[in-house]
């Protein structure tokens, strides 16, 4: 939890309780269904929770915002973001049923009422959202192509609606088609830890 409180010192007591509960929940579920590398579960807060919350350093979702987590796996980045923004609606979607089940069970265990989950391909989701978020699911051009139909026209935030994804390594080729309007934030400018040195938040407005 120290890593979370270091960068987000203004959490409510409720949010602190919810974040603190994640370690035991993920550890327990991960022993049954592998949603996080078993070698990496000890680094849950730094490598997974704080990494997910990098999106909260780029945008503060306003109340009433709707967000789809595309390829949510066991609920990352959706669950940490749902804790951070309790008045934002999150729809966690993944094509692998057992992973969606973990996400749903963890969301329920910590009392998140702003989260729903779907075992589905994103191609089959018809709903509209202000933003689609994802964490290293696929190459950016493919992601944008699949998700564009799900981006709502109604604007509610300081950033125009679009896709926000967490990426690592060299992504020059991926962002080339969006060069004129893509925004890349280096996580090394937000977080001190070595883990973040080659990681980015990539935002592509759509519409």
Report on the structure:
It is a single chain. With 207 residues, the chain is an alpha/beta fold. The chain is built from seven helices and seven strands; from the N terminus they run αααβαβαββαβαββ. It has helices at 2-7, 13-30, 44-58, 78-84, 97-109, 140-147, 172-175; strands at 66-70, 89-94, 115-119, 131-135, 162-168, 183-186, 199-205. A seven-stranded mixed sheet has the order 3-2-1-4-5-7-6, with helices on both faces. Helix 4 links the parallel strand 1 and strand 2. Helix 3 (44-58) crosses helix 4. The model has no long low-confidence stretch (mean pLDDT 96).
Q: What's the total helix number?
A: 7
Low-confidence stretches: none
> Percent of residues in helical segments?
25-40%
N- and C-termini, Cα separation: 38 Å
Identify the overall geometry. Answer: globular
Strand pairing plus helix content: what structural class? alpha/beta
Biggest sheet strand order reads 3-2-1-4-5-7-6
* Beta content: 15-25%
Q: What would you report as the Rg, rounded to the nearest angstrom?
A: 16 Å
SSE series:
HHHEHEHEEHEHEE
Largest sheet geometry? 7 strands, mixed
Mean pLDDT: 96
* Strand tally: 7
Summary of the model, kept short:
The chain has 207 residues and is α/β, with parallel strands linked by helices. The protein is 34% helix and 19% strand. Strands 3-2-1-4-5-7-6 form a 7-stranded mixed sheet, with helices on both faces.
Keywords:
7 strands; alpha/beta; 207 residues; 34% helix; 7-stranded mixed beta sheet
Q: In terms of topology, how is this protein built?
A:
Layout: H1 2-7, H2 13-30, H3 44-58, E1 66-70, H4 78-84, E2 89-94, H5 97-109, E3 115-119, E4 131-135, H6 140-147, E5 162-168, H7 172-175, E6 183-186, E7 199-205
Parallel strand pairs: 1-2, 1-4, 2-3, 4-5
Antiparallel strand pairs: 5-7, 6-7
